[in-house]
Amino acid sequence: MESAASSWLHQSFHGSWIFVLFLPLIMIIVFQMFFTLRLRVWCSCEICQAYIESRWAVQFPNLCDWYAHLLRNSPTRTIHIHVLNNTITANPDNVEYMLKTRFDNFPKGKPFSAILGDFLGRGIFNVDGDSWRFQRKMASLELGRVSIRDFAFDVVRQEIDCRLLPLMESVVGGEQVLDLQDVFRRFSFDCICRFSFGLDPKCLELSLPLSEFAVSFDLASKLSAERAMTASPLVWKIKRLLNIGSERKLRRAIKIINMLAHEVIRQRRKFGLSDQKDLLSRFMSSISDDKYLRDIVISFLLAGRDTVASALTTFFWLVSRHPEVEAAILNEANAVIGPDETLTSHEQMRELHYLHASVYESMRLYPPIQFDSKFCSADDVLPDGSFVKRGTRVTYHPYAMGRMEEIWGPDCSEFRPERWLRDGVFWPENPFKYPVFQAGIRVCLGKEMALVELKSVAITLLRRFRVELAHPQPTPRFSPGLTATYRDGLRALIQPQLLFTLYSLCILDFDRLSYASKIDNERQPYIVYMGELPEDRISLMDVHHNLLAQAIGDETIARNSKIHSYGRSFNGFAARLLPHEARILSQKEGVVSVFRSRKQHLLTTRSWDFLGMSVKVKRNQQAESNIIVALLDTGVWVESPSFNDKGYGPPPHKWKGTCDEGGNFTGCNNKVIGAQYFNLAHSVQPYDTTPVDTDGHGTHTASTAAGVFVERASLYGIAEGTARGGAPSARIASYKVCWETGCEDVDILAAFDKAIADGVDIISVSIGGASRSFTQDPIAIGSFHASNKGILTVCAAGNEGPYEGTVQNAAPWIITVAASTIDRKFQADVKLANGETISGIAVNTFAPRKGFYPLTNGVQSQNSSGELYGNASACDYGMLRQDKVKGKIVYCQGAGGDTVVRNLGGAGTIMSNDANLDTAFSTIAIGTYISVEDGLKIDEYINASKSAQAVIYKTRTVAAPAPAIASFSSRGPSRLSGNILKPDIAAPGVNILAAYTKFTSVTGEEGDNRVVKFNVESGTSMACPHVSGAAAYIKSFHPKWSPAAIKSALMTTCMLPSFPILIRSRSDKVTDIVNFLAATPMRIKPVEAEFASGSGQINPKGAVHPGLVYDVGTDDYIGFLCKQGYESKDIDLIMGSKGYNCSNNTQARGADGLSYPSINLRVDSIDAVVSAVFHRTVTNVGIGRSTYVAKVKAPEGISVEVIPNVLKFVRLHQKKSFKVILKGHKFQMNLWYLSGSLSWSDSKHHVRSPILVSLPTNY
């Protein structure tokens, strides 16, 4: 052997210098041979020898099938591959132990991070510890937004309609064989690139070559996965060092990926983020490190491309082999969507339960990620008794778990979607039995969006095409890789679906076809809304039962299906229905709408002083104490000092509410006169139900609206002052509709029904969700009936800003509230030993214990043996040495390093970040946030000094210019009514101190033991109760005013800019700073103008005497609904009248059809000529004999004519009408809205309405 090798070397190299050049390569080959021989000597067990020699391939088509065989035959369902130092398990108890019980002891580990480090860097799928937690928290925040889910759905639909369907149509019925795996990989890559990067690689345009980015991404993924297949990591590490072979290709591919990623980031920073909706743009607002951004987004690209494509490939392979499943899916789609209709919304998707079950069943048998490995940090023992030594690779195997009889039964190898369906609903299994989306703390955040993409493609293609495999195989054969990839693709002929449907009726299994047609297993909670209460309420429950029984066809099932009857304030019921039953009910006489119950979400002192309502403000205390403010929220902690009932008499006689019992609840008092909970959707177990607030949100909002005076309230001395609500003498009624999992529609509507009947005056709702038709939105329905009973509903606008078209709760009878800042900020300063002081922003409750601490930065504290691909400057997990951090203050570039520094014994953390500096976040340890520019100064000081020192001071309250609209506050326009301006108004919602519950901590984070009576929170949730309190304050002076009159008074007396005209171009990204007339005006006007602020900042004192009000009632709202296109029969039921017909009644006039306090016109296009008339009627509530003159500040290029322009009143409550005519030529280029105003003045009162003219946005 040696002679042959010597001869080969001599002939090959022809010189010693070449031999020297290639010596490292020879060493690698020799090392591999040695390593293989060493392994055989080290372990001669049958399993290890079968692995080394690949003997498994004789019996099994794939390595994963061999593993499944071994695991099935293991008594513990756990095996150990000695040569790999790998423990592999298919035991659900072990999976739960790894992913939940002992999560911190089973990280991904450095070996895994090293393999993918060059490709994924510090992205979420390649890091552990605090870096992982930071990215997960950030991703959770963004992926949970309604706007991002809508954006993802739109991207998928566009890609399907514009590319996937035309491609399939081009080959249908022909002889061309299509590789569906390749098609799905291209499709999913296009979608995930557009979603994550805002970049369209056009991979599905088969006429174009694959983009260099797509080719490089695919190659980088493949070569990175191959690293894991080498005998030792030293092999690929040496090749990388020498830049040869596969590592040279990998480096080149990653270089191309990096070039494109950094160019996209550079362009995005250059031209701004406000018009972008992709993940990158959202993350850029809070992360300044471009390399970090690249890593994060590349991880999402990898997950979103390969897993979705793999799942789709397997789904169509299975469905093509099971025509009975395909028929069941199609039958269900026809029942839910309609035979000739297309899928249009998330809601329709949620009703396709058999499809959902089929997708889950497909991934049970063939998970996209067949196994997942962690590394044991410390010696441990798994629940099945298996000892795991430190450093051992521990793998759980979803592929094998899907083939375990004790988990899935004797038919575990069969494709049976029915196993996922119970009692009419899709029934998810324990995630530790089905860890396809991981489980526990690591559960996949993008799960829902991935399922939407999967099901959208599946149902769209199945309804149009039949997939006929060109080369059917009994089982797939997989290629090595990060995800399950078919070795030879999925080659298929595409046939039209119609022919198959006719054929399939003759051959399908009867039971399954029967199942598909009846859709027996899809019961979900629905709300059946029936409008106003009938005169005969005695038999209401019988009416509901009879309707249910007729739709279901079975008395017993009908009785068991009903969840609740709404009958106190409006007519309707909730029941668990099948889609076809819901459709039957929707066609019944007396039913306005039938819609699925969805889950909605919470939209989470000095502020009243800032609004001009000091402690000594004039109040009508007796009248105020008779006002009841209802809050639909997380409950209330009655023992809070803000709800002390000293000096209160018994509840008002009109009060008909109750006080529920529950765990930790001590009862109501004369301040909190009602505390009820609603758990119709069974969000929690019955023994966990209680009206007590365990979250803090409900207590915070209730005290903001109507809390009593509490002197010296503060958060550890921060923001100290007298805490109180806008109506401190008012009573509070709490309706708990939100639990840990969210706020269910059925519970929200039940709370409205009860609150209206209980006799409340104001309803405050800091809850929101995606926009829906007014007759399918429980908040819109409940608030309409509240308005009809003289009750004003105030709602949060949403926290989806700064993106346009994200405003929620936009019904015109609701007052919709944006969030603004107040004239203070929470400053946590940094002082350097050189005397320089740097301003920071945070809620830091910790005071320093000495004058100065040693100061260092992440780079100087770097752990040279830490994770190879972390960023020390950002203080990433694993990148800092404890001995270099302990007792020191550490400067970190970017957010999220404070937890790392705290865990290493650091004295504090300074973090630089230019995003979200309008909001102070609570730190769990000593820390503060500074600007990136100031961060550079600190770095320079550290590098120039041998003994740098600094101190971080506890947060103090300082004056700040205000108000400004918060960056998180949702923006208009409304998706439902383009000519109604939403939000209506702005109120303080940033850094608000208010009461809190004792059942959670300041941050709610693990390890935070600070339990407080008052806490600082931000969100439109905090803005909403400010307006609720202000409305109660106004009602105490004007108890007979209608909800619309109170709303008008608040809107037309807002604090206003002295320069009201703002023209915003499509490329303008800079917020205008303007001067204002009022004492505390909106000094910082948002770029989005009235789409962000509505009429402006509330002025409660001024709203008590508005002069004129735009007073509208139920008939006006009905006319508006007619104009919006709602059917007469539905409006007849809503009104409770007989024979109402839109065409026979006075038509709503003008562009918007409603006498609204603001004027908003949306034109069709940039070329459209502006021409519109708005009809308005005002009521005199000021001085009996008075004359008001119109003053117009017209939007640039628009003429505004008011007819008449003088209104003369001779008595109070007299009404006068006028019209406003807008005319103008087409918009200038690059402009998308113009704003101005109309003011009526009698010299004492100034009644202002904003005027906005806008183009449609691309939301």
From TrEMBL:
Residues 625-1054 form the Peptidase S8/S53 domain. The keyword NAD does not apply. The lineage of its organism: Eukaryota, Viridiplantae, Streptophyta, Embryophyta, Tracheophyta. Residues 1154-1253 form the Subtilisin-like protease fibronectin type-III domain. The chain crosses the membrane at residues 12-35. GO terms for biological process: proteolysis. GO terms for molecular function: heme binding; iron ion binding; monooxygenase activity; oxidoreductase activity, acting on paired donors, with incorporation or reduction of molecular oxygen; serine-type endopeptidase activity. It comes from Sesamum alatum. Residues 526-601 form the Inhibitor I9 domain. InterPro entries: Cyt_P450 (IPR001128), Cyt_P450_sf (IPR036396), Peptidase_S8/S53_dom (IPR000209), Peptidase_S8/S53_dom_sf (IPR036852), Peptidase_S8_Ser-AS (IPR023828), Peptidase_S8_subtilisin-rel (IPR015500), Peptidases_S8_3 (IPR034197), S8pro/Inhibitor_I9 (IPR010259). It holds the Pfam family Inhibitor_I9. The active site is at D633, H697, S1021. This is Subtilisin-like protease SBT4.15. Keywords: Hydrolase, Membrane, Protease, Serine protease, Signal, Transmembrane, Transmembrane helix. Belongs to the peptidase S8 family.
